[in-house]
Design goal:
heterodimer, A: 593 residues, 4-stranded antiparallel β-sheet, disordered C terminus, B: 275 residues, alpha+beta, 6-stranded mixed β-sheet, 3-stranded antiparallel β-sheet, 8 helices
Chain lengths: 593, 275
């Protein structure tokens, strides 16, 4: 059935017409591309600064700020706009893709490596107390200084995961000391305790309790300050606390030190207040313990974090004021979602004019909407593992769909996002003369060479998600939409002289409305072409296409006999046009929203 | 019996007049205190100024400066900016081309912001400092030196230093040479995350917001891709609700193929159309 509706390319005349027509379309399209390409190449300068205050841009000469340098070459080939690494020696930060001039003006140290592959930017593991960061040495020194700790940089560790796991292995325990002959304690790292020994500051706090350390300072690994045998001032309380950088609710001793993870059943259990107990051995491990009144073993990745019960809008826990806050999203545009989940959506009318894809994220109990690139140049892809969905915006690789002549190439998802819409696995091709520009080294002007490429005689491979086009601008959109132009020849047989009648002989399917509808669907599949509706469901002010019927040739004439037969060839054509005026509708709707 | 009642009544009357008298005295005292506050010289006699407190009042503009700079991408008056929700937001990494990654425009963002904040608060703050110095002179302080201001963005706060002042009070022996104020702010964290996002934009053309939110639960990162390929990033510190908004334009895709197209910022193309 579908075969009958397509143009009969076995008919020699039809085929010739079609080939000529497609070649003209391809030629016009190429002309539009290359004219714009060549004209753009002609005017490209490297502006040290543009008139709109952007540093080091390749732009037409009239956009270069005359007070700064400009050369008729790519910025990569200039000395003043060469990209490199800008190193901030005070913060230990390396900024990539920075022009030398910009770095010099900012008083940074510039080096030629664009991706900052220089010794100063080499990463290592910075251990800061019981935490770790995978940063450069200078950055490590800076971070350590914030916490008043000595720099512990381990350059032999070369992965972030390894570095973070190292942090959990760091020694932590009770640091017992005497201040003005009174025994006190601080729960800290071994390094932190050494700092107390040296009379140094701890973090942002002033000197220990305002007095001076008068006795021995001893570190008891894994012990809590509330351990009886340590014999200090710190005792048990019914208070809890949240610690920055940690997820769980912790018991707090009378000196303000954190103890073990809050567990209401262990409030008076002296053994629980004696030594550090791991998260895995604490109450409710493996669960988020959301809004639990008795267990504070929260887990950020499972959807909970320590918060004051009032902020968390929860009921008061059995002891203290902190609880595991629920971070899941109860109400989103797509029902309830778990903390960290992401999912896709698009406008109601998929791939309509002005529509785009969106990624939704549930984070900290909030739904965050992240639009993918406009003009459907990005699509949203989604998958789920054990019911936990993850989504992301990915480039829509539609650009070379139209030039595919084989199904296997068209549907190669490693290379492109296209769909094959043809009744055979291959489509006939023609060799077309074209030109290819080979870019020179470091952005220098390229060479244009004549080449021969194979072009399908009809479009059989379409973008899976039709791209948006700037149809309100002259040029490219018209060129792309013209790929949908099609024509069909219908052959009639004229019978009789006085009471003549016309009988359709071939190509009759083109006379049916379904043929036109199919061609319009094809037209719309190319991009923002044809009679498309916009993202709020409104049609354009114009039809979006043209149909034309014309008599091509009278091949044979009966010449008047009663039984004379004449053959008439009619050409039926559809011209796809870029959607017009719809942008106005879209804008009105946007304002209305 | 009648006599006793009369005496009682007399006592009540006396008590009433006493209360009235005390009320009048209280009103007079309050009025006198109010008068003291109106008459500055007297105020300074009874309540001598504490220089630290007086100078602290001069640096309050930092609040306004931080809010403005946070909304505008780190510059008070962004030169290269994207118009978004009524504000011009600075492009910190930018390319005018399609299919290309961006070029860094503000590599040392922290230092740049320190300079911007300083330039913004300096005129008003120095003028206020001069007024405070004059007040202190009236109270018997020996004041000399030209004051200078410095700003440093630190991890949990912003350090504002007033230097170049010599304050000395002979009778008490008090003397000051420098004042330092710490304004609580989480802008440092937001700047460091911004720097990381910018490196991702410069190298790969985009960044993954959920990674930052997973590592830093207290930071919310939002990304809004615009029609012209620009991206507006909104970073929010959840506790303090401090915000830092900035724009980038990297690895943009035009509508269609966009061959040879060179993007011109919207503000500039509008100007050209007007011409």
């Amino acid at each position: 059935m579908r075969k009958n509706k397509l143009i009969n390319i076995n008919n020699k005349k039809t085929r010739n017409y079609l080939i000529v027509f497609l070649l003209v379309a391809v030629f016009l399209l190429s002309l539009v591309y290359f004219t714009s390409l060549v004209s753009a190449q002609e005017v490209k300068y490297c502006c040290e600064k543009t008139i709109y205050d952007a540093w080091c841009q390749n732009a037409p000469q009239e956009q270069c700020n005359q007070e700064f340098r400009s050369t008729p070459t790519s910025c990569e080939a200039t000395s003043f706009c060469k990209l490199g690494c800008c190193y901030d020696s005070s913060e230990g930060i390396c900024m990539e893709n920075t022009p030398q001039k910009v770095c010099d003006l900012s008083e940074g140290t510039w080096s030629e490596s664009k991706e900052c592959d220089i010794p100063q930017c080499n990463l290592g593991c910075c251990v800061i107390g019981t935490q770790a960061a995978y940063v450069s040495l200078t950055r490590c020194k800076k971070l350590s200084s914030f916490y008043g700790l000595q720099t512990d940089f381990r350059k032999q560790i070369n992965s972030e995961v390894e570095c973070l796991s190292l942090a959990s292995l760091a020694d932590e325990g009770a640091c017992v000391y005497e201040v003005d002959f009174v025994k006190s304690c601080k729960f800290t790292s071994r390094q932190g305790c050494n700092n107390i020994k040296e009379g140094m500051k701890i973090g942002n706090e002033t000197e220990i309790t305002g007095g001076s350390v008068t006795g021995n300072v001893s570190f008891y690994k894994d012990y809590l300050c509330s351990a009886e045998e340590l014999g200090n001032l710190c005792g048990l309380t019914k208070e809890t606390t949240c610690i920055e950088g940690k997820d769980e609710v912790y018991f707090k001793d009378s000196c303000g030190n954190p103890a073990n993870i809050y567990d209401s059943s262990k409030i008076n259990d002296k053994a629980y207040w004696r030594k550090k107990i791991s998260k895995a051995e604490s109450c409710g491990f493996g669960s988020a313990n959301i809004n639990s009144g008795g267990c504070g073993n929260c887990d950020y990745f499972s959807g909970s974090i320590c918060k004051n019960y009032k902020t968390a809008k929860s009921s008061k826990p059995s002891y203290g004021n902190n609880i595991c806050q629920d971070l899941n999203c109860k109400k989103t545009s797509d029902g309830s979602k778990r903390h960290g989940e992401s999912w896709c959506s698009t406008d109601e009318n998929e791939d309509s004019v002005g529509s785009r894809y969106f990624r939704h994220i549930c984070m900290n109990g909030e739904e965050i909407l992240e639009p993918c690139a406009d003009f459907r140049q990005e699509e949203c892809i989604q998958d789920s593992i054990n019911g936990f969905s993850q989504a992301g915006c990915r480039v829509n690789r539609w650009q070379d769909c139209y030039s595919q002549s084989e199904k296997i190439d068209c549907e190669n998802t490693d290379k492109r996002d296209c769909v094959w819409k043809y009744d055979r696995d291959e489509v006939e091709t023609r060799k077309v003369e074209t030109t290819t520009t080979i870019s020179g080294a470091e952005g220098a002007a390229g060479t244009t060479l004549p080449t021969e490429v194979s072009q399908p005689v009809t479009i059989a491979c379409f973008p899976e998600h039709a791209p948006g086009l700037k149809f309100w601008e002259e040029g490219e959109a018209q060129g792309i939409c013209s790929l949908a132009n099609t024509q069909c020849e219908v052959e009639f047989e004229k019978k009789g002289l006085i009471f003549s009648s016309k009988d359709c002989k071939s190509g009759c399917e083109c006379l049916e409305d379904s043929w036109k509808q199919e061609k319009l669907v094809t037209c719309e599949a190319i991009g923002d072409c044809g009679a498309k509706i916009n993202f709020v469901g409104i049609k354009g002010f114009k039809e979006g296409y043209k149909t034309k019927t014309e008599k091509v040739k009278e091949e044979e004439s009966g010449g008047g006999g009663l039984f004379g037969i004449s053959l008439v060839l009619n050409k039926l054509g559809i011209t796809g046009r870029a959607v017009e005026k719809q942008v106005e509708v879209k804008n009105i709707e946007k304002e209305r929203v | 019996m009648i006599m006793r009642e009369g005496i009682k009544r007399g006592k009540i009357i006396n008590k009433k007049s006493q209360v009235t008298l005390w009320i009048i005295i209280a009103i007079v005292i309050i009025a006198l205190i109010a008068l003291i506050f109106y008459l500055t010289p007297l105020k300074t006699i009874f309540f001598p100024s504490i220089p630290q407190v007086e100078f602290e009042g001069c640096v309050e503009k930092i609040d306004e400066a931080l809010e403005l700079i946070g909304e505008r991408g780190g510059s008070m008056n962004p030169a290269l900016g994207y118009a978004y929700e009524g504000e011009k937001i600075e492009y910190l990494c930018y390319t005018n081309q399609y299919y290309k990654t961006c070029t860094m425009q503000q590599p040392l963002l922290k230092q740049h912001m320190e300079r911007e904040i300083l330039d913004y608060i300096k005129p008003e703050t120095l003028s206020c400092i001069e007024n405070v110095k004059n007040d202190l002179r009236k109270q018997g302080w020996q004041v000399s030196g030209d004051s200078d201001l410095n700003i440093e963005i630190l991890q949990d706060n912003i350090k504002i230093s007033i230097s170049g002042i010599n304050l000395r009070k002979e009778d008490t022996g008090e003397s000051y040479k420098k004042f330092e104020f710490y304004y609580k702010s989480r802008i440092y964290d937001l700047i460091m995350i911004t720097s990381s996002i910018l490196n991702w934009e410069a190298r790969y053309g985009d960044s993954e917001t959920t990674t930052y939110m997973a590592y830093y639960p207290n930071i919310k990162v939002e990304k809004y891709k615009q029609e012209d390929g620009s991206k507006v990033y909104k970073l929010t510190e959840r506790e303090s609700q401090e915000k830092f908004v900035f724009a980038t334009r990297s690895l943009s895709w035009p509508g269609g193929y966009g061959f040879g197209e060179i993007y011109t910022p919207r503000s500039l193309s509008l100007e050209n159309e007007k011409k």
